[in-house]
Amino acid sequence: MEAKKSIQEQRLRNIEITNYNSKYDQSFYELNKSWIEEFWMLEDSDLKDLLKPEESIIELGGEIFFALANGIVVGTAAMIPFPNSKIELAKMTVQKEYRGKGLSKKLLKKCIDYAKASKAKEIFLISNSRLLSARKLYDKFGFIEVDLDSNKYKRGNYKMVLRL
């Protein structure tokens, strides 16, 4: 058991979080499609962001972070700008084999740092109550649930914000 934990810790130390690069577009699509389809169907709003991330996220002033293990994408998170200094945390996922090892924390920390550097006043996210580990992560980082005022995702049944 101890040897297995050591290998997992070593894997996580070898993870590099990098900014958007179009060469990872296919991985962005595949990773997100995979986790979404574990529970739901891809929606039009997903396809808009996943099929043309440069156009729908980057060109608007947003960012996509990639977690790389030996050059292979094993996690992603997107920051999509909105009016009034708000930014949406979206499309955050980690490959199944890397889940539960702290990678989501690294990605979320990178996203929060990015939002602060961008002078955003608030990060918001839309999620679903079936995603228990995601909810625990958001709670741990200080996000608070607010009224859901978005219909961007049919599967979204709650909204959380982190005021910066």
Determine the number of helices (DSSP H or I, runs of at least 4 residues). 6
Structural class: alpha+beta
Strand order of the largest sheet: 1-2-3-4-5-7-6
Overall radius of gyration: 15 Å
Give start-end ranges of low-pLDDT stretches: none
Main beta-sheet annotation = 7 strands, mixed
Instruction: Count all strands and give the number.
Output: 7
Q: Helices and strands in order, then pairings?
A:
Blueprint: H1 2-13, E1 15-18, H2 25-39, H3 44-51, H4 53-58, E2 63-69, E3 72-82, E4 86-94, H5 103-117, E5 122-127, H6 132-140, E6 144-146, E7 158-163
Parallel strand pairs: 4-5
Antiparallel strand pairs: 1-2, 2-3, 3-4, 5-7, 6-7
Short description:
The protein has 164 residues and is α+β, with helices and mostly antiparallel strands. Helix content is 40%, strand content 28%.
Polypeptide structure, described:
By secondary structure, the protein is α+β, with helices and mostly antiparallel strands. It has a single domain (2-163), classed as Gcn5-related N-acetyltransferase (GNAT) (Aminopeptidase, 3-Layer(aba) Sandwich). The protein is 40% helix and 28% strand. It contains 6 helices and 7 strands; from the N terminus they run H-E-H-H-H-E-E-E-H-E-H-E-E. The chain has helices at residues 2-13, 25-39, 44-51, 53-58, 103-117, 132-140; strands at residues 15-18, 63-69, 72-82, 86-94, 122-127, 144-146, 158-163. It has a 7-stranded mixed sheet, sandwiched between helices. Strand 4 (86-94), helix 5 and strand 5 (122-127) form a beta-alpha-beta unit. It starts with a helix and ends with a strand. The model has no long low-confidence stretch (mean pLDDT 91).
